[in-house]
């Protein structure tokens, strides 16, 4: 079912969102200051390519205050808008019964895109 869900996800916009995250990550990596944020864009982009079968969790152990500072900067510089976009799409898909698995993926992406520092993706 994960394979079928990922194929449908890719056909109906997942690949376009993946390309957008990759381009944003490349643009951020052009500057030295933006490299940590570009890496997070790459992480979110990989998650948007095949979200079914992948999970997000907090990094075990001590994360440190640097990731908290980076998360705050991320939220103010656009993370809130990315998370709200995934929330809106998740709510719209949750209205229909057939869209519930895709809404769940948008909610998972929302939590990752709101505070990506200190989180990891695992299968």
Automatic annotation (TrEMBL):
Coiled coil: none annotated. Residues 4-54, 69-119 form the Inner membrane component domain. The chain crosses the membrane at residues 6-39, 59-77, 83-103. Pfam families: YccF. InterPro entries: Inner_membrane_protein, UCP028777, YccF. It comes from the Bacteria. Keywords: Membrane, Transmembrane, Transmembrane helix. The keyword Methyltransferase does not apply. The keyword Membrane applies. This is Inner membrane component domain-containing protein. It comes from Dyadobacter endophyticus.
